[in-house]
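step=predict obj=Acyl-CoA dehydrogenase family protein n=408
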Amino acid sequence: MSGTTQLPTPSGPYLDKGPLPADFYAFEDLLTDSEREKIESVREFLRAQAAPIVDDYWARAEFPFQLVEGFGSLGLVDWADPDSTEPRPSNLFSGFLALEFAHADASLATFCGVHTGLAMGTVLACGSDEQKRRWLPLMSRFEKIGAFALTEPHGGSDVAGGLRTTARRDGDEWILDGAKRWIGNATFADMVVVWARDVETQHVLGFVVEKDTPGFTATKIENKMALRIVQNADIVLEGCRVPEANRLQNANTFKDTAGILRQTRSGVAWQAVGVMFGAYEIALQYAKEREQFGRPIGGFQLVQDLLVKMLGNATASCGMVTRLAQLQDAGIFRDEQSALAKAYCTVRMRESVGWARELLAGNGIVLDYKVGRFVADAEALYSYEGTREIQTLIVGRAVTGGLSAFVK
């Protein structure tokens, strides 16, 4: 039997105003009224300004710089300015913010996560009062963009012990030598947080390397299949001189580095939930509009089965990260809880975007129908800020009472 050939109009997330259809258990209602209003303003900005252009920029592997001023105007991190009277937002709000960006586009979520979470988070946690006043006001307004350089060409999961970039003190300066890889925002960042090993003490220290510093070069990584909007770079440091004033005064061991990653790891789990939300909503709308055998495919049992499995994954994952954020806000969360969330949510994300692609059949691999972008980007979220295997070992060590399976 031949069916109709009618195709739905390509559409993406943000099909309607109001709450996201994927938030089936209304987790967003746990936010305060003011927090929900802020999320709604971000949602409206992304709906109007980002959603119409991200596919084009993704296809060209370019960054939409025209959005950056808008990010600043949203006041997402105004609270980080030392002169601000705004209270620090809850981890629950920050999580929903990451979800909202990833729901629109995982690359934009990554850009903001690198700038506000990794770069600004390092200055907040490890900078002196003077350094915070020097950098955070401009960073909070997105007038200076930050990057975070830890991963190296020969070291990802083993970077704690295998960090090769070196720092040597020379009077009032430090000389940095080494290489970094996969550094998001680095091709255009105004300042890059670089982690290097002090050749004298062997401790890992943090430095802010400012744009155009002699001896610092950042080369865009080409031909990526995921997060194509993110401008990842290979960084080379050759006799790069950084003043002592740019050494982060409270970043003195790798434990300080790990403390930053412990906080941002949960943000990746939230991004994974956002990707699931976005892919589910595209698939849901498609199922309502696409006709085969004279009726919308959403009326077929196997299609509904795919939708419900996606929704179940998204709902379970959102419940996990919501509880994690509550533990963070209470100050009682543990590293292994972030690790479990990152591992679990990214696995469920990878599964769910595959089902969305399956539901759209051939249209699922065409960028016009958007699901293909979510499928590709999920591959990067699955691996970055700690692979599933590393997260598993962190959790495994905790649940076995300290029996470590890490290679030493």
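step=describe
The chain has twelve helices and nine strands.
step=end
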